[in-house]
Design a protein that fits this description.
about 170 residues, 5-stranded mixed sheet
Length: about 170
């Protein structure tokens, strides 16, 4: 999108629109509800955070502030839980954790994904240092693509292409 100035046109994708509807609904309902079983003492909803240091930004569905002084990410996904957490979901969550750590200067050791198409099943992710190291490698790769203005190779995992907005223009 940034290299070749080709918009994603996300507004025409059903899952994106459905996900946005769910996020909007969640942000307007149960605003004061705190997940006591997760030791949540406060929360912030739909926070847009930025990191100049890491060249990232994101809108976090919920930042959960915990009894122990730390925080956790809570992210809603219009998806079914398939007995595993996809790497893309995990890395997005790690990215949000990094943003919280940098902007609030508090520890973020875990996150949660709510799978809305599986009766709102909540799945916990525990972050490791390796997760943050992997995220930095991904960020470095993305920055290299932007700086050198080249189009990355198509993924070997063709199932990822099914719902990609760039599938028709990918280079093999």
């Amino acid at each position: 999108m940034l290299v070749q100035n080709i918009p994603q046109n996300e507004q025409s994708r059903f899952k994106v629109n459905k996900g946005r509807d769910i996020h909007k609904y969640r942000s307007l309902t149960n605003k004061d509800y705190l997940r006591k079983k997760m030791n949540v003492v406060n929360k912030e909803v739909e926070q847009m955070l930025y990191s100049e240091k890491h060249h990232i930004h994101g809108k976090i569905d919920e930042i959960l502030f915990l009894e122990d002084g730390g925080a956790a990410v809570l992210d809603y996904k219009y998806a079914e839980y398939k007995e595993k957490i996809f790497r893309t979901y995990k890395m997005q969550s790690v990215c949000y954790a990094l943003l919280i750590k940098e902007n609030y200067n508090i520890p973020v050791k875990k996150g949660y994904i709510v799978y809305t198409r599986s009766q709102n099943k909540v799945v916990e992710i525990e972050y490791t240092q390796r997760d943050f190291d992997d995220l930095q490698l991904i960020i470095d790769d993305i920055l290299k693509i932007i700086e050198k203005s080249y189009f990355p190779k198509k993924t070997q995992a063709s199932e990822r292409c099914i719902d990609c907005c760039y599938t028709n223009i990918c280079v093999k």
